[in-house]
Write a structure and sequence with these properties.
The protein is mostly beta strands and 101 residues long. Helices cover 0% and strands 54% of the residues. InterPro entries: Ig_E-set, ML_dom.
C-alpha cells in the first residue's frame, strides 16, 4: 500500500439473514504492536452511501482506506472491526499490509 493512496476494500460476510443495513467501522493500523486509527470512508456505512450490497452468498460492503503519508514504510497489519446499528460486533478480521513510499 503506497503512502497517500486510497485503497478500496470490499468484504463479503454472512449476516445470517438479519438484513444488516448499517455498519460502524473501527479500523486500525498495527505496526510493532502499536495501533493507530485508520481513516476510512464512508463511516458509518448505511443506506445513504450504497456501501452494503447483497451478494449471492450473503452480503458485501466496500470502504475506502486512506494510507496516510506519516505511516512507517514497513510490514504490519490492519485490524478491521465493524458493529451493527445495535453496537454489536458483526465483523472482525486482521490482514497483513506492507506500506511503501
Amino acid at each position: 500500500m503506497a503512502r497517500n493512496a486510497t485503497i478500496k476494500v470490499t468484504v463479503r460476510f454472512d449476516d445470517n439473514g438479519n438484513g444488516v443495513s448499517f455498519l460502524k467501522h473501527e479500523v486500525r493500523w498495527v505496526f510493532n504492536y502499536i495501533k493507530t486509527q485508520a481513516a476510512i470512508t464512508p463511516d458509518p456505512c448505511d443506506g445513504d452511501h450504497g456501501c452494503i450490497m447483497s451478494a449471492t452468498d450473503g452480503k458485501a460492503y466496500w470502504a475506502n482506506v486512506f494510507v496516510n503519508n506519516t505511516l512507517p514504510v514497513m510490514k504490519g497489519s490492519m485490524l478491521w472491526e465493524s458493529k451493527d446499528a445495535n453496537d454489536q460486533n458483526l465483523i472482525c478480521f486482521q490482514v497483513p499490509v506492507v506500506i511503501t513510499v
